[in-house]
Design a protein that fits this description.
The chain has one domain. Helices cover 70% and strands 6% of the residues. The protein is built from seven helices and two strands. Helix 6 (152-175) packs antiparallel against helix 7.
Length: 210
């Protein structure tokens, strides 16, 4: 089994252990959702508030472990196996950090939650930008449009473009740290990137194939 995957499993187990350790110190009503200004505006019971994020991460980890075996194009996974497991590890670290922020807040430390997660989002999207150009055709990861799935060259060109855009976007996220409604500020461009890549894959397919 890949070492990165083992480290990801270990990180999830540690999150459960930390949750158990601090469980009695946490309030019965825990903050579990924050608005665009980084202030808590949603709450849940202690059991859900403590273990929801570790449980979701564990479910995602199990799902990720099965993907290479159930994809109709599973032979292609061998070509990007290293970055695939790297992505899993980065994703698990991201969820672990989010979990720690949640615990810290509910242990009585107030801060702008949104601004504290922005650097983590930046790292996550930067790594996605590194991963995308290395992906080969598959049905679960990447920019999957009718045209990228239908043509390998269109897939490669679209993902090269996507890699650049996501890395630039990761830098843009850091500037959102200085914006009051940071969450709204940094979420908006992702929809423009998605629309651009959709159109780009179509036009590239028209240029190369038709």
């Amino acid at each position: 089994m890949d070492k990165k995957f083992i480290l990801a499993v270990f990180t999830v187990l540690v999150s459960f252990i930390i949750g158990l350790y601090f469980y009695n110190q946490l309030p019965e009503k825990m903050a579990s959702h924050w608005n665009a200004e980084g202030q808590a505006d949603g709450y849940s019971g202690k059991l859900i508030g403590t273990f929801l994020l570790p449980s979701l991460t564990l479910i995602c980890l199990i799902f990720f472990s099965f993907l290479p075996n159930i994809d109709p194009l599973k032979k292609n996974f061998q070509h990007f196996k290293d970055v695939y497991y790297g992505f899993i590890l980065v994703f698990v670290f991201f969820m672990f950090y989010l979990f720690l922020l949640t615990l810290f807040w509910n242990l009585g430390h107030s801060f702008n939650f949104t601004q504290f997660i922005l650097p983590a989002f930046s790292i996550l999207f930067f790594y996605i930008g590194v991963v995308l150009p290395k992906l080969k055709q598959n049905w679960f990861m990447g920019i999957r449009t009718p045209w990228t799935i239908s043509n390998e060259m269109v897939w490669d060109l679209t993902h090269e473009k996507a890699g650049v855009l996501f890395r630039l976007y990761s830098i843009f996220i850091l500037f959102a740290f200085f914006v009051p409604s940071a969450l709204l500020f940094f979420m908006a461009p992702i929809f423009l990137i998605a629309a651009y890549l959709f159109i780009y894959s179509y036009l590239t397919f028209k240029r190369l194939v038709e």
